[in-house]
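User: Hey, quick favor. My workstation is busy. Could you predict this chain's structure for me?
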Amino acid sequence: MKKLQRASVRIDHKNLSSRRRHNIDDKRRGSPLIPSIVPILKSYEVFVCAFNPVKQSILATGSKDAVVNLWDLPLPTSFEFARGSTAVQRLEDFVNGDQGDLTAVHWNSKGTLLAIGSYDSVLCVFTGHLYFSHTQHQGPIFTVKFSRNGQWLLTASLDGTACLWDVEAKELNIQYRAHTERCAFSTTDCCLNVVWISDILFASCSADQSIHIMQVGKIEPVQTLSGHTNEINQIECNPSGTRLASCSDDLTARIGKIDHIFASGEVYYTRAVHRRSLQPVVLSGHIHPLSSIGWCPNHPAGTNEIVVT
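Assistant: No problem, here it is.
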């Protein structure tokens, strides 16, 4: 299961001026530039952050003090250091600051709404001001994800459920309990992550070692993927929506095919050999549990996709 941890970065300030000088010299020679050093943004212990997908100078950070800061970052030139942010908007409309560690943030595709999940089980959505909030979950919220079209919002909680929210109506549509069938509110069934496959299909993973493919409007899973032997911490769909990657405390990652699931949610097998071809690729080699997995967003046509753990 994911645990909130403190991270720190050491910067050698003595070498900053010389690096800046070398960057400029490299630019004149036509050599690749060392990436510019961005400003250090002072806040409390920061757990999550996300850039606005439209206004890319806007950065949202969520911290242990139950505060979300929206930073307006001036963009640096290719060979200059970024300047510090002077414009900070602070969002503080949270229910319980003492238990309000912020665990997830996600922007909608238009960059107009920011969803926030927290350890006190409260979901909040902001426009800059509070758009709506809800206390439906009975356990910490670990993931919040808008659908690509912005119509829906998914949340995953340690109470074992995933909730589908109607964003415009500001209300719960369905609470999925596929991971709570064995023992409701058991710590072995907590829902750890959700990811959209399309605007009507999504997947959820759990400490119960299973992945469910779900469809908007249907309470039962379209398909269940199994094979991991310990908690599944994260799942990610490739950009084309044909593969689902997962990583687990069992020290492995798996890549499974999902292109046999139509956009309608119907599962289709052409013949037995096709069913066998759906066996996942198992990636091993780590000696500790895997907490994160991701796809390379772009790769040249005709080349294999890249996944990192």
